[in-house]
Amino acid sequence: MIISTRGKNALKLMLDLATYNTGEMVRLKDIAKRQNISEKYLEQIVSGLMRASLVNSVRGKNGGYTLRYDPKDYTVGQIIKAVENDMAPTDCYGKNSPPCPNKATCANYRLWARLDSALNDVLEGITLADMLDWQRELYTDQYVI
Fold first, then answer.
1. pLDDT class for 141, splitting at 50, 70, 90?
2. CB 128 within 8 A of CB 70
3. Rounded distance, CA 111 to CA 71, Å?
4. Closest CA to 116 of 95, 102, 101
5. In the chain, how many H helices and how many E strands?
6. Do 134 and 15 meet the contact criterion of CB atoms below 8 Å apart?
7. Over the stretch 43-73, which tens digit does the pLDDT of each residue have?
8. Structure letter (DSSP) for residue 22
9. CA pseudo-torsion sign 47, 48, 52, 55
């Protein structure tokens, strides 16, 4: 399973919203500039996040986006799944895959099931708050007087 650019950029967008979580709306134009991502592309990504009820939006001059919940209430898996079609490790295993006729006798199928479970455990075990902490640690490590 490869997380697409859309999934990686959804995480960047959400991490940016968490970083600038002051109660004020955050404009996509500002996120695009900070993250070096096309504003048009971010519009596509944020629509998936809105469909999944992960962000709030307000239109108009003072409009923009905010997190719907506290960063600790989002998992990385939840964010990625909001914009990815399927996160299955292979095309014969996953929610969008046709039923496997060899499932009962295929050792590979068991491997894909375990890999899928392990991947989901990692992605569901890391929160947006964890990533925000990691980001702060990295910035602190870069601080030089």
1. low
2. no
3. 33
4. 95
5. 6, 2
6. no
7. 999 999 999 999 999 998 888 999 999 999 9
8. S
9. negative
DSSP H/E element including 122: helix 107-125
The DSSP string of 44-93 is: HHHHHHHHTT-EEEE-STT-EEEESS-GGG-BHHHHHHHH-S---SBTTB
Residue 7: in which H helix or E strand, if any?
helix 5-19
- pLDDT one-digit tens code per residue, 67-111: 999 999 999 999 999 999 777 777 777 777 788 888 888 888 889
CB atoms within 10 A of CB 13: 26
Q: Amino acid identity of 60? A: G
The tokens of 14 are what? 């959400």
Task: Tell me the whole-structure pTM to 2 decimals.
Answer: 0.86
Q: Rounded CA gap, 74 and 127, in Å? A: 5
